[in-house]
């Protein structure tokens, strides 16, 4: 991606900058990223798919932030567009995740035969599917959807009648993350853990959006939320690959290899659950830095 999100000068409101103005400025920067999603080299396809998905998630978080300024129909239309774009990339994303998890399992096993087989399976899983010409076409479709949706959101922001208070939206995002975490840890349900991850990801993006110069306390909160969503992402990836292995045995994978891999994934998930439980306890004692109402 010629203009990646990581290379953008600022994805935060500037001091004394009106929220509306900052919101439009940031969306215009993200439109630049969307315009160059399709890679020039086939070797960059996996990175492009990942960057496109990150862009969609960030845009969803921003749309949620601006929710009070939109009508229900406008929100529904934008959400639907982001969902379509995300679904277009689902298959490619699953391939990348499967490859990554199988490579990780190969490093976790001491059995040489298992290790070689897992490495071979990881290479086959990425295969031609992620490097296929259809992926570039899909990325082009995603880019078109995102550019049009960003354009519509900007148009709406410029004629809004009421903008939400930044502090109120941040408090709501923080509370939603805490509640999702409590539900996930109480029921130990993978689906609830996935919801928790989405709430944590949204909170992270909104903290980055609203905290121009974070104080030490807020910087620590940012670090914890980032770590939380990363661990929850690892957990979800493990769930996806375990489910895939149990439902459909990969070619040339013996039942013993599948059982061995599933056991490694179960162990990994146990460790990740303990990790997120510890982070959640730290977050439950925190509060987001309240931005001044604007």
Helices and strands, with pairings:
Elements: H1 19-35, H2 45-65, H3 72-88, H4 90-108, H5 112-126, H6 133-158, H7 166-187, H8 190-210, H9 216-247, H10 255-284
Helix pairs in contact: 1-2, 1-6, 2-3, 2-6, 2-8, 3-6, 4-5, 4-9, 7-8, 8-9, 9-10
Structure description:
The protein has 294 residues and is mainly α. The chain has 2 domains: 1-110 and 126-162, Four Helix Bundle (Hemerythrin (Met), subunit A) (Up-down Bundle), CATH 1.20.120; 165-294, CHAD domain, CATH 1.40.20.10. 75% of the residues lie in helices and 0% in strands. It is built from 10 helices and no strands. It has helices spanning 19-35, 45-65, 72-88, 90-108, 112-126, 133-158, 166-187, 190-210, 216-247, 255-284.
Question: What's this entry about, in short?
Answer:
By secondary structure, the protein is mainly α. The protein has helices at residues 19-35, 45-65, 72-88, 90-108, 112-126, 133-158, 166-187, 190-210, 216-247, 255-284.
């Amino acid at each position: 991606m010629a203009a990646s999100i990581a290379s953008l000068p600022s994805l935060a409101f500037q001091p004394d900058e009106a929220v509306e103005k900052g919101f439009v400025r940031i969306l215009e920067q993200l439109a630049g990223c969307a315009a160059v999603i399709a890679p020039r080299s086939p070797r960059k396809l996996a990175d492009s798919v990942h960057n496109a998905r990150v862009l969609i998630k960030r845009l969803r978080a921003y749309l949620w932030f601006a929710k009070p300024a939109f009508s229900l129909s406008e929100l529904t239309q934008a959400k639907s567009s982001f969902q379509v774009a995300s679904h277009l990339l689902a298959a490619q994303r699953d391939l990348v995740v499967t490859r990554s998890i199988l490579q990780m399992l190969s490093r976790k096993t001491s059995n040489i035969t298992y290790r070689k087989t897992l490495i071979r399976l990881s290479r086959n899983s990425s295969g031609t599917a992620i490097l296929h010409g259809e992926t570039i076409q899909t990325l082009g479709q995603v880019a078109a959807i995102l550019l049009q949706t960003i354009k519509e959101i900007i148009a709406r922001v410029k004629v809004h009648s009421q903008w939400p208070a930044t502090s109120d939206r941040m408090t709501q995002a923080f509370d939603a993350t805490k509640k999702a975490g409590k539900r996930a840890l109480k029921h130990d349900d993978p689906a609830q853990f996935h919801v928790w991850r989405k709430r944590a990801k949204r909170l992270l993006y909104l903290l980055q959006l609203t905290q121009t110069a974070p104080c030490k306390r807020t910087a620590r909160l940012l670090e914890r939320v980032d770590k939380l969503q990363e661990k929850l992402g690892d957990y979800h990836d493990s769930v996806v690959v375990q489910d895939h292995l149990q439902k459909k045995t990969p070619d040339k994978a013996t039942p013993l290899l599948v059982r061995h891999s599933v056991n490694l994934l179960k162990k990994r998930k146990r460790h990740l659950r303990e990790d997120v439980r510890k982070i959640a306890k730290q977050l439950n004692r925190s509060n987001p830095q309240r931005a001044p109402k604007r």
